[in-house]
Amino acid sequence: xxxxxxxxxxxxxxxxxxxxxxxxxxxxxxxxxxxxxxxxxxxxxxxxxxxxxxxxxxxxxxxxxxxxxxxxxxxxxxxxxxxxxxxxxxxxxxxxxxxxxxxxxxxxxxxxxxxxxxxxxxxxxxxxxxxxxxxxxxxxxxxxxxxxxxxxxxxxxxxxxxxxxxxxxxxxxxxxxxxxxxxxxxxxxxxxxxxxxxxxxxxxxxxxxxxxxxxxxxxxxxxx
Length: 224
Fold this sequence. Notes:
The protein is an all-alpha fold. About 65% of the residues lie in helices and about 0% in strands.
């Protein structure tokens, strides 16, 4: 099993609905040959929407609905942010882009790529920030950092304002910083953390796909 397959397997472990795994699979399939081809990702997301965009969240859905009506992506992303009263810092970008940590691309490129991907659908830069932090944490865990070490290392790469955002209290909401912190909290227990995360998250299932990805990568280090 290669690294991106390991991450996908982890996402699947925690995905009780199916959407995070489906869209993460789409991302890795689209970017496998050229991880920097965001135009291909744009086209893939449009196709995913036309195919029903299963469990992709209200922001992704509404942006692509407006695109289908003729708006530009920039217009659609801004208009959805306005329609949602500024609440576009959700976890769909982190769900879909975490798998990119397993592609053979330089670590230094992950931050910019994650933020650009998130901006295709989510106007609030917090969505891109947390997607970026998530993909960098996973890459570091794959490189044999402990989860705690990876979180500390990535946090040290952030500016003061970003670190403050990362201090958000964990919760079962879909707010990306809360999702990430809940995922880190549950993943400290590789044996029971995923089960506890699924119970905690309930039907919304926001943090468990990330918990699954973290734990798969943690366990892969323990068995090497």
